[in-house]
Write a structure and sequence with these properties.
Largest sheet: 5 strands, antiparallel
Strand content: over 45%
Strand order of the largest sheet: 1-8-3-6-9
Structural class: mainly beta
Shape: globular
CATH topology of the largest domain: Jelly Rolls
CATH class of the largest domain: Mainly Beta
Helix content: under 10%
Radius of gyration: 17 Å
CATH architecture of the largest domain: Sandwich
Length: 191
């Protein structure tokens, strides 16, 4: 994968995490729990308490967009917090933004799109993260490349990550349980 990066940050109460975004733009999605977020320095600052839902099935997420060469710190005061960290190389001059659940903004200036909705069909460079309720559930994705030399069904389970390189496609076929999927898709692959 050339440009997208994905990880999960899990902090227990009292824990903290500090990072410099370097040459990446970063999107944080609170999967569950509540924390304080301190972003930036000089003129590009953002601060807030983010996260209200106990898990991904309890409503929409708080999100934060953090530009390249910016520092941020996550502090979990009250209890555990779990955050998806999505990254892509970027030198876009944008401001840090913290969004409450349901709040939206013009994301046309960013290198990738992040969606918490299961996407029926995804093409190009993308990363999908799956959760199920109950956790024993699974889903089937039809995965194929442009020339169909690879064409198969892939079973994804709770906490699985599906990585699609450029030239590959995934279509959701069926799910055996309530499905949450976080997709990050490179903007250059969107039509």
């Amino acid at each position: 994968m050339d440009s997208l990066d994905f990880g999960i940050l899990s902090l227990s109460g009292g824990g903290s995490f500090f990072e410099d975004t370097a040459d990446n733009e970063v999107v944080l999605i609170v999967l569950g729990g509540r924390c304080e977020l301190l972003v930036g320095h000089n003129a590009n600052k953002a601060h807030g308490f983010i996260g209200e839902r106990p898990n991904v099935f309890a409503g929409e997420a708080h999100r934060a967009y953090i530009p390249y060469r910016t520092t941020y710190e996550v502090i979990a005061y009250e209890g555990p917090v779990e955050i998806a960290i999505c990254k892509a190389p970027s030198f876009l001059e944008t401001a840090a933004v913290i969004l409450a659940p349901g709040e939206d903004f013009n994301d046309n200036a960013h290198e990738f799109i992040v969606s918490e909705q299961p996407i029926p069909s995804v093409s190009g460079e993308a990363i999908g993260f799956y959760r199920f309720d109950p956790a024993e559930g699974d889903a089937h994705q039809h995965v194929y490349n442009n020339d169909r030399s690879l064409d198969q069904s892939v079973c994804v389970r709770h906490n699985d990550v599906l990585v699609l390189p450029k030239g590959y496609h995934a279509e959701l076929v069926e799910s055996s349980a309530r499905l949450y999927c976080l997709w990050m898709v490179s903007r250059e692959n969107l039509s």
